Amino acid sequence: MLMRHVHDTEADAEAVRAITAAAFDDPPDHWPHERAVRYRRRVRHLARTDPGGCWIALDEAGGDALGVALALRREGTWGLSLFAVVPHAQGKGVGRALLDRATLYGRGCLRGLICASSDPRAARRYRKAGFTLHPAMRLSGVVEDRTGLPDPDGIPVHPGSAHHLHLLDSVDRRLRGGAHGPDHEELLRHHRLLVADTLVGSGYCYLRDGRVELLAATSRRLATRLLTEALLLVPHGTEVTVADLTAEQDWAIDVGMAAGLTLSNAGYLCVRGMRPPAPYIPSDAFL
């Protein structure tokens, strides 16, 4: 097995997409064009910002891609954006080698975050790496009862843009100990940004195609208002997803249930050197 850094090229980005598709039984030819483009952009973004944390494993004989790990560091907070191994290479040490390289990149970071699937092998690896595993939940479905959502309560929410980057990073530092920095610029390319900025606190939410990608706020009241506004903006009949919710995000569960969404178990939020940020809904790509 050969290990090398993921390069900022279309070829490597497509190789990572193929690994992901095989590992999660999600055929790449079933991906909508927009999703494939967005995924390759994510890979190339991290290859540029965090070359030391992005690793690909290759078969030494034929050069076939076996697995990938993409890790990032943001102001003392380390995160694992992607960890995938193709089925025929699982259980052969490929995943362990990749995770070792990715976690080494986080050496010196005080905090760590991973949005993990329910795969017991991955959970075991993360626990051995020193992470605390918090069971996570997902809200999904169609917003059936908009009248049941919480009242706006006088808190204004307005569209955000690159002009709000300092506000976003400030909220990040307060909640997770490190700003997302360049990740906000990438998120803005593909998502609608909502911002709440009041005398008593601030917050933001990214939304795309019914999925809440990332939400952070300095109070539960602001977080509730942002999530409510996001759900109200989803077109009628569109499937909604709000994922990676731990027990600390019961405010989000209350909003989702009021909207008629279904709650289910879904993997783990893994943390090291910190408690799960709250009120906060992480991005599984940028944490």
Summarize the structure.
The protein is of the alpha+beta class and about 290 residues long.
What would your notes on this structure say?
Keywords: Transferase. With 287 residues, the chain is of the alpha+beta class. It has two domains: 2-109, Gcn5-related N-acetyltransferase (GNAT) (Aminopeptidase, 3-Layer(aba) Sandwich); 138-281, Aminopeptidase (3-Layer(aba) Sandwich), CATH 3.40.630.90. The protein has helices spanning 10-23, 33-49, 94-104, 120-128, 165-176, 182-190, 220-233, 250-258; strands at residues 2-5, 54-58, 65-74, 77-85, 111-116, 132-142, 158-159, 192-198, 201-208, 211-217, 239-245, 262-272, 280-281. The protein has an eight-stranded mixed β-sheet, sandwiched between helices. Strands 7-8-9-10-13 form a five-stranded antiparallel β-sheet, sandwiched between helices. The radius of gyration is 19 Å and the shape is globular.
Looking at CATH, which topology of the largest domain would you report?
Aminopeptidase
Instruction: Using the coordinates above, name the CATH class of the largest domain.
Output: Alpha Beta
Number of domains: 2
What is the number of beta strands?
13
Biggest sheet character: 8 strands, mixed
The shape, in one word, is: globular
Rounded to an integer in angstroms, the radius of gyration calculated over CA atoms is 19 Å
